[in-house]
Amino acid sequence: MTTLTEDDLHISVSGLRKMYGDFPAVESVDMQVRKGEVFALLGPNGAGKTTTVEILVGVRDRTAGEVSVLGQDPRADRRAWRNRLGVVPQNTGDYMDLTVGEVVDHFASFYSDPIPSAELISMVGLTSKTKSKTTSLSGGQKRRLDVAVGVVGRPELVFLDEPTTGLDPEARREAWDLVNYFRELGATTVLTTHYLDEAEALADRAGIIAAGKMLTVGTIEELGRSAGAATLITFADLPDVAQIIPATLGTVEAAGREDHRFSTSIATDAPTEVLSRLIEHARSLGMAEIPGLSVSRPTLEDTYLRLIQREDAKR
Ligand SMILES: Nc1ncnc2c1ncn2[C@@H]1O[C@H](COP(=O)(O)OP(=O)(O)OP(=O)(O)O)[C@@H](O)[C@H]1O
């Protein structure tokens, strides 16, 4: 594993804790976000995602822990530092009686090199609404305007708190395009979400958080492999499998009749070895093909559900 230096990191958090009275909204969060990556904070309702983001962007104080964002402690909240961030909070205020174009122009005026308003409005799919009052926008359209306002200053580090909640599938895709656009510009993105497909589609790495605790951090593939989830190899009509796959290599999990076939599943951490033994076995029986063969890798969803359920069981 390569050792990361402070220069490679846009965010470094250790031992983060936030108490509301004697309730720990954030109990132990450790995470590092590398320059240029898309990092997803995944977790169920009330996990502590928003509180963590609010601390990172300097709008909420912390009880304990070390936090560095773009090389600074967010508590200092310096203007030059803030201008390098783009923040799309979960709940934004209203934009009063202004039109979409006026709102974007207004926020653009705070920055020295903003994304041109028309370009940005088009990127979030609101061109036809440029002259409409924001009060007439649908919930999803308003959310897209929030995203535009948050990123108009070409931030180096973007925080998107549940950017696609309430959006229809097409608008979700547009929001995803925007994240990819920022990735191409070299920006770092932290997004909170409880949509696993969103993390899978967008994130380089993700952290799973529940009940204020960071349970695991890794690439999407690493997360899929963690929490003891095994690869599942399924096939049909291959006799005497138990004799060629010892228990040390895999567990023959299910055997049943399906569509006139006798199907078998093997859960294994050594899929290549199991497959090669199966193929050799099939050949020795004179079979050219193994009927119904499929290999399914454990998914992010498997790991997520396992970890969240394990955490729920503790409470
Ligand atoms: N101002 C506050 N005072 C007291 N408790 C709070 C406050 N803000 C948040 N909490 C509690 O802290 C916990 C974490 O909340 P937070 O909003 O960070 O969760 P979240 O992961 O963002 O959830 P969601 O996905 O529902 O937005 C929740 O139990 C919430 O009720």
Automatic annotation (TrEMBL):
Subcellular location, record wording: Cell membrane
Keyword set, alphabetical order: Antibiotic resistance, ATP-binding, Nucleotide-binding, Transport
Main localisation: membrane
Range of residues in the leader sequence: none
Superkingdom of origin organism: Bacteria
Topology term for the membrane: Peripheral membrane protein
Molecular function terms, GO-annotated: ATP binding
Protein's UniProt keywords contain Disulfide bond: no
Entry-linked InterPro entries: AAA+_ATPase (IPR003593), ABC_transporter-like_ATP-bd (IPR003439), ABC_transporter-like_CS (IPR017871), ABC_transporter_ATP-binding (IPR050763), P-loop_NTPase (IPR027417)
Residue ranges occupied by any ABC transporter domain in the UniProt entry: 11-236
Keyword Methyltransferase: no
Name this polypeptide is given: ABC transporter ATP-binding protein
